[in-house]
Specification:
Blueprint: H1 36-65, H2 79-94, H3 101-113, H4 117-126
Length: 138
């Protein structure tokens, strides 16, 4: 038989202090018991609020899942075309419209899709051809 004394357990004499962010802190509310009529109204309104909140959350999830995929690409433009884009941006700013270069290009794309085949052919023929790819290093 083992005749040794049982080991004593050490106890902490100082209280532990835990710093939690305000978001994770637990706040207790003291609620007085309302009368039976008020309690039934409170329960019904709580249920309605919960169902509305659930519907809103599902609608938000649907909107977030239906995001449009943005594709990044690079294009070669002659200097004159860049000047035209900056002129269009200045014109829009003078009219109180804040517009980006990509938005101007997309607006032009939408306008081109509305042209007839003959008008589109003329517009494409007016555009000068540029050499594709990156310029060679000198």
């Amino acid at each position: 038989m083992n005749t040794s004394k049982p080991k004593s357990k050490k106890t902490v004499t100082e209280p532990l202090q835990i710093d939690l962010p305000l978001e994770k802190a637990v706040v207790k509310k003291v609620v007085k018991k309302p009368s039976a009529a008020k309690a039934s109204v409170a329960i019904e309104t709580k249920e309605v609020v919960e169902t509305v909140e659930a519907e809103v959350k599902t609608d938000i999830k649907k909107i977030k899942s239906a995001k449009i995929k943005v594709i990044r690409d690079s294009f070669s433009f002659p200097e004159q075309d860049y000047l035209k884009i900056s002129e269009l941006k200045k014109t829009c700013l003078a009219a109180g419209i804040h517009v980006k270069k990509g938005e101007i290009l997309r607006a032009g794309l939408h306008l081109l899709t509305q042209l007839s085949l003959d008008e589109l052919k003329l517009a494409v023929e007016k555009v000068e051809k540029v050499q594709t790819g990156r310029p060679t290093a000198s």
